[in-house]
Hints:
Blueprint: H1 2-72, H2 77-96, H3 106-116, H4 127-147, H5 150-178, H6 187-193
Amino acid sequence: MADDDRGVRERLAELEAEVKAEADASRARKEEALARLREQKAEQSELRARQQAIVAKSKPKAAKREREHDDDDPSSGIAGAIELANRANRVKNELARKPGKGEKSWLVSGVASLALGPLGWLYAGSLRESIPASTIWVLLLGLASKILPTLLLWPVLMVVMPLSGIAGVVYALQYNRHGGRQRLFDKDKDKKQLPSGS
């Protein structure tokens, strides 16, 4: 019996030692994890402080740039309002006058472009832009009408057709200003292609 008691006590002592070792190891892991977390927090706060310092330095420069831009911007203040009113008045006068001989009606161009899409651009638009756009438009409409139900085409048409009508009006106004068909898109492309000597 005494041997059994001694064996049980030894076994209990061993178990207590194992439990204590596991508790010590667990405590050491927790302390190590907490130390890592503290380091990360310190690094994050240091990074945040550096970022705030950079932002604080760049804010005055950005504010100065913005003030300089506002001073150079013609649309700021009274001068900008007057310029905007003058432009609106010129456009109103242009739209109010009847087209003379050899000029295109902006109303016809706008309605044709609104109803027919890019096909209406052929009335006053640049042929370089109108013909490819019309061809693509007809092909896309033909393809879409075969694939998509008409109900799904309506939202697209409700966006595209007014934009096309606006482009038609602009084409007619450009035609009348310059006395011929003018391009709306890629105007700068021709300037870039000119040789540097010319």
